[in-house]
Amino acid sequence: MSWFLWRELYRNRWIFAKAVVLIPLPHIVVALIMWDPAELDSAYFHAYLFSTVLSAMIVVGLASNSIAPDHADRSDEFISYLPFGRFQKLAFKLLLPLAAVVGLCTVNLTIQMPPVETWPVGDWPPAGCLPETSHWCVLLAGAAFGICGVSWFISSIQSSAPLAVMCGVASILLVAAPFEEANFWFPFFPVLFATIGAACFWFGSRHYLRESKPYQMPAWVQARQD
């Protein structure tokens, strides 16, 4: 069982390395190059937003790299013969993406947010309404869970991790718009994102437990690609 966990950690080692470097990088850059105290709030605010996007990309990478590579290299057939229960294997596959959601949300909300709690109004999108901190936290957590679920679902039914990444990136773009009106749409969008994420995890997990092969595209689609 420990081998299975180490295998997942080793497969995603470069994603973890990028997370360690990239997520704090915007704040480090601001701390090193900003000398005007009057502009620090604005600079840290932009660094926080950029770091939040990078965190979402890390979640997408981990979720996309969970099952699709097993389909691609046929290692799912080997895993099916391991002396583990199906739900144990599913738990290991879910562990890293969900841990990333919890860990990165914790980092973004408890460590990186304090320097920008002033929420510089002038830097917020003109069309938006400055959100309350509590609304922002709930919306960010719901969006992270939804993004992770979409990437996990595509990874579970396809053998292409890049396809899962592209779908995850598309979901990031879709969830970004409500952040401009976080107060107005609260709590509709957090509930919507969480519901989408839960549905994606549910159906993706069912496919992983019941099917040993990725979903095959219809014959006419394959014919057009050929």
Task: Describe what this molecule looks like in 3D.
The chain is mainly alpha-helical. The protein has one domain (2-225). Helix content is 72%, strand content 0%. The protein has helices spanning 2-11, 13-22, 25-33, 40-64, 68-73, 75-79, 86-111, 133-157, 161-176, 188-210, 219-225. Helix 4 packs parallel to helix 8 and helix 7 (86-111) runs antiparallel to helix 8 (133-157). The radius of gyration is 19 Å and the shape is globular. It starts with a helix and ends with a helix. Mean pLDDT is 79; it is low at 217-226.
Keyphrases for this structure?
226 residues, mainly alpha, 11 helices, 72% helix, disordered C terminus
